Amino acid sequence: MASFNMEYYLPIIVMVLIQFIYSGMTLGTRIALVDGMSPRVFVVYRCAFATIFLAPIAYFSSRRNSTSYSLNLRSFFLIFLTALIGITINQNLYFEGLYLSSSSISSAMTNLVPAVTLVIGAFTRMEKMNIRSLRTIAKVLGTMICVSGAICISLLKGQKLLNADNLPPKSILESDENWLLGCLFLFGGCVAWSIWLILQVPAYASHPNSLSLSTWMCLMATLQSSLVTLFMEPDLNSWKITSLLQFGCVLYSGIMGSGVTFYLQAWCISRRGPFFSAMFSPLLTLIVTILATLWLHEEIYIGSLIGAIGVIIGLYVVLWGKAEDLVDVKTENYGKIYCKTDLEDPLLHN
C-alpha cells in the first residue's frame, strides 16, 4: 500500500518541486537584470550553461543506447528553426518583459501559453474544434478569459512600476510606459513558446531522441543568441559578469531552469500526461508573487491581481475543455494509471 501511495504522489511532489525551481529562476533572473545585466547577454549565458550541462549527459546516454540518430539536413533545419523561435526569440522577449515589468506579472503571463497554443492549433487545423461540443465552447471561453486577464494585467495597473526610475539602462526601449511594453514582450514570448510547442512535432519526428534534441537546440540557441547580442550590443563590456550574484543567477537558470527541469518535466509527462503538468502552472504564479512581494518588495496592484486571477481561471477552463482528448488507461501493475497521449505533441491533439 505504501508503494502504491508513493507511485501516486511522487509526480505531484516532483511538479511542485519544478514550480519552486522555476520560481527561483524567475526571481534570480529579475535580480540579475536589475543588478545591471543585459537581458540579451543573460539569454546567451543561460543557453551556454544549459548546453554544457546537457552535452556530456547526451553523449554518454547515446553510447549506452544502441539506437543512433543522425542529424540530416531536414533535422538540422527543423532544430535550427525550433531553437530560433522557442529559445532565442522566446527567451529574449520573456527576459526583456521580465526586466520591464515584474517577476510576478511575468509568471502570470506564462499561463497564457495553453490558450495561445489552442488558438494557433485551431488556425492550423491541428486542434479539433466542434462548435456543438460543450468542451469546445469551454476551450473558446477559457481562451477569451485568458486574453481578457492579460489585457487587465497590461492596462489596469494604475501607476508606475515600483523603482522603475532606478532601473539600469539595459533595455532596448526606455520610456514611461515600461509596464505596458513589458507585458507586450511577455505576450510575444508566450506566442513564440506556443509556436515552439507546435514545432516540436516535426522536429521530434525527424530526430526522435529528446535528450539529443534538447542539447542541439540549446547549442544552436547559444550561437543564435550570441549573434543577436553582438548585433544589438556591439560594446563587449556588456558581456562582463560584474558580480558573483549575476554569475550564480545565470548558472542556476541554465542548469536548474533548463537542464534539471527538462528531465523532471519529461518524467512527469510520461506518467501523468501533459495536462497534469499544465495544471500546476498557476502554482508558479502564487509562489513568485508571494516571494517577490516579501523579498524584492514588488507591489501588487488591483488591476494586475484581477488579470492574473482571470488568466488562471481561463487556464483551468481550457484544460477542462482539453480533457476529452486524453484517455486514462490502467497498466498491468495495480494502481498505476498512465495518460494515453502523444508525447511528441504535448499540448495539441495530433
Supply the number of helical segments.
Answer: 12
The tally of strands reads 2
Shape: globular
Based on secondary structure, the structural category is: mainly alpha
Order of strands in the sheet with the most strands?
1-2
What does the model show?
The structure is a single chain. The chain is an all-alpha fold. About 70% of the residues lie in helices and about 0% in strands. It contains 12 helices and 2 strands, in the order H-H-H-H-H-H-H-H-H-H-H-H-E-E. It has a two-stranded antiparallel ribbon with strand order 1-2.
Core attributes:
single chain, 350 residues, mainly alpha, 12 helices, 71% helix, 2% strand, disordered C terminus
Reconstruct the topology from this structure.
Elements: H1 2-34, H2 39-64, H3 73-100, H4 103-109, H5 113-123, H6 134-155, H7 178-206, H8 210-232, H9 244-272, H10 274-278, H11 281-295, H12 302-322, E1 327-330, E2 337-340
Antiparallel strand pairs: 1-2
Task: Give a nutshell description of this structure.
The chain is mainly α and 350 residues long.
